[in-house]
Specification:
Length: 433
């Protein structure tokens, strides 16, 4: 049954609404501040009205943490009732958070499953072969942007992976069990970041790194570190995110391997894929830092690696190759605010190569293009691109804070009444049309 929503006067300050919902969620100011990446003093000033909330991105983050519709905070409750997209997406995060907050007792020991907590539901933990299939299925679900269903199933997967890891500690299967646990944590971290909880995504990525180290796979460690860097970027910790990705990339493959005049062995495709993926994320962080020179250098290094790997591969679930590298060039242009350049780069995409990318990557491209259209003032094309994204990957639109932020900005910039299709999409996203 949907949670009853209080009726606020539209004149009630937004800070008072924030305070109300924080109280409803049993959060102290300090806990709330930690979850949105702000200080307790900042929260106190917002709630007292001493500090204005005038950035949609910040309001969107606050709504995500409080598990309420942006409209509730803005006082634009509209007429759409029932459970909105954000409510539905937050349910999955709540269950996933609960699973990640289970810790084993201090006296637990390998082989003792009593420390694993009660499994969400189902039968006894599966063997490693079955667990491997479940992890592969979870990766496929993630890359097909089925975040809501994946978040609902991850508690069970994490439980089984944790039990398997403890059960096989010290035996011949210990490395395989740790490898699967590291992957499960990586999937959970990525889903949490997508659904708007970057702080928990970062902590979960740290667990992935620890498990990957025990698995003894440097490439798995590298890509797990990349998940932590992704979460740092989502938290607005841009410089640490940049350093995390670049240091990890250069640790796995020295910079000279990607120099234009390098004559050395370019390493195996899996290593190139992991290193290239780290360089791409580092380039995006460089764009956020306003450093186009470093951004281009990193993109060029990644593109050389991508040419050696080729398209159509998915080593370590990176989807790395020339097509994905080109998508990052578009993302970087959008981050720099150069929508026109992003649209020019869009015209250079090879359709067949794009079609071979997983839906999550193609949906991410569409969201970038929607931003690019908005940057050049073509709001109609931006809205149509959001509709295209929903047709390809509904969860990217209905559950991702990033998509909601784009829609909020479009609605704010609109000078007239939005088209009916846009209004309906906004309602499906839990926003007033």
């Amino acid at each position: 049954m949907p949670e009853a929503r209080p009726v606020f006067s539209n004149e009630l300050p937004i800070g008072r609404r924030v305070a109300y919902w924080r109280g409803r969620r049993n959060m102290t100011q300090q806990l709330f501040a930690d979850r949105i990446g702000k200080s307790k003093s900042w929260v106190d000033k917002v709630e007292r009205g001493a500090r204005r909330l005038d950035r949609y991105s910040v309001i969107n983050d606050i709504a995500g943490v409080l598990r309420v519709d942006v409209a509730q905070l803005l006082g634009n409750t509209g007429s759409h009732g029932g459970t909105d997209a954000r409510d539905t997406g937050r349910d999955g995060i709540d269950h996933l958070r609960a699973a990640l907050e289970r810790y084993p007792p201090a006296d637990s020991h390998p082989g003792d499953d009593s420390d694993a907590g009660d499994p969400p539901e189902g039968t006894e933990p599966t063997d490693l072969a079955e667990l491997g299939k479940a992890v592969d299925h979870a990766w496929l679900s993630y890359q097909h942007a089925d975040y809501q269903r994946l978040a609902a199933g991850l508690p069970r997967l994490l439980h089984d992976a944790q039990v398997a890891d403890r059960r096989h500690t010290g035996d011949d299967d210990g490395t395989r069990a740790a490898h699967l646990l590291a992957q499960a944590y990586q999937i959970a971290s990525s889903v949490l970041r997508k659904l708007g909880d970057p702080q928990l995504a970062r902590l979960t990525a740290d667990r992935a790194v620890a498990a990957a180290v025990r698995a003894g796979d440097p490439l798995l460690v590298g890509i797990a570190i990349g998940r932590a860097g992704n979460a740092l970027l989502a938290l607005g910790r841009v410089r640490p995110a940049f350093e995390t990705h670049v240091v990890a990339a250069h640790h796995l493959a020295p910079a000279q391997h990607f120099a234009a005049d390098s004559g050395g062995d370019p390493a195996d495709p899996a290593r190139l894929s992991v290193v290239g993926a780290l360089l791409l994320r580092g380039a995006l962080a460089a764009a956020h830092l306003g450093d186009p020179a470093t951004m281009h250098e990193l993109l060029q290094g990644a593109e050389r690696a991508a040419e050696a790997v080729g398209d159509g591969h998915n080593h370590y679930w990176t989807s790395f190759g020339p097509a994905n590298s080109h998508l990052y060039r578009i993302s970087a242009a959008v981050v720099l605010g150069d929508g026109r350049r992003a649209l020019e780069l869009r015209d250079r995409i090879v359709p067949r190569a794009l079609a071979r990318l997983v839906p999550e990557r193609r949906a991410h491209l569409l969201l970038d293009l929607a931003r690019a259209y908005a940057q050049v003032g073509d709001l109609t094309a931006a809205a149509e691109t959001l509709l295209d994204t929903e047709r390809l990957a509904p969860a990217e639109i209905r559950h991702r804070p990033a998509a909601r932020e784009i829609m909020i900005d479009l609605l704010a910039q609109a000078t007239g009444t939005p088209a009916a299709s846009v209004t309906e999409l906004a309602k499906r996203m839990g926003l007033p049309g």
